[in-house]
Amino acid sequence: MATPFNVPLSMASCSIGLPKHTFHQRSKPSPNKASRASSSPSPTSSPTRAHASQDVREDDYDALCDAGRQLGQLVRAHNLEIIVLQPFSNFEGWPAGSQEREDAFTRARGWIRIMEAVGTDMLQVGSSDSEGITADGARLAADLGELADLLLEKNFRLAYENWCWATRAPRWKDVWTIVKQADRPNIGLCLDTFQSAATGFRGWFSVEVFDGKFESKYGNDLNKFAKKARETHEKLLRDVDEKRALTGLE
């Protein structure tokens, strides 16, 4: 469905339903089967690993890619698309020559393979919450730039998100500074309202709701949940659009 900002309505697959629900069940409740809807799965989440009919290691990229290809087919069968793979974490800032830095780039190459398998062109990277990473913003930017270069080889993009619990870049202004320093054509911001609100930027507000009564409210009726989520999303965008009209903001 179209929104007032021409952005496709998207839902993180991990936010739909309960752990017992399969990826097929999570993909099925499209708000409008004729529309362009989207999903953002994690390659190491339980639904993804379970789709391979067995639990696999997080670094078993052959098995994860096989599961990813199956998931891509399933998503397309439901007239959906995967707009982003997430969350890729604890990547930037490790000391040069360290095992952690080597592992980070090994993971990056593995996730790029998974992106190809599921059929998406964007990787969401959360600002690292690891201890022991550098406080040098230029070094953080250089690492993100190297990752962006790896992604660009496949014409892929990088969306960098501030995580409010991050070690060095918890605020949206922090990640924006790093993105500008990285200076790559395929890197930009992922502005998460929850993360921004949690760090005190009152111009944003959270739309992430963690409902402990999901099962009593919805049971296995994921369509009911998706309908409620869509209505809330539409109301949010209408409210924002009205505020823009009143204030004259673009």
CATH superfamily: Divalent-metal-dependent TIM barrel enzymes
Q: Give the structural class.
A: alpha/beta
CATH topology-level fold name: TIM Barrel
Strand content: 5-15%
Strand order of the largest sheet: 4-5-6-7
Helix content: 40-55%
The main β sheet shows up as: 4 strands, parallel
Q: Which consecutive residue ranges, at least 5 long each, have pLDDT under 50? A: 30-38, 200-210
Q: Order of helices and strands, N to C? A: EHEHHEEHEHEHEHHH
Number of domains: 1
Second rung of CATH, namely the architecture: Alpha-Beta Barrel
**Shape call:** globular
What is the first-to-last residue Cα distance?
A: 22 Å
Commentary on this structure:
InterPro entries: IolE/XylAMocC-like, Xyl_isomerase-like_sf, Xyl_isomerase-like_TIM-brl. With 250 residues, this protein is α/β, with parallel strands linked by helices. Helix content is 44%, strand content 10%. Strand 1, helix 1 (23-27) and strand 2 form a beta-alpha-beta unit. Mean pLDDT is 78; it is low at 30-38 and 200-210.
Task: Give the key terms.
250 residues; alpha/beta; TIM Barrel; 4-stranded parallel β-sheet; 3-stranded parallel β-sheet; 9 helices; 7 strands
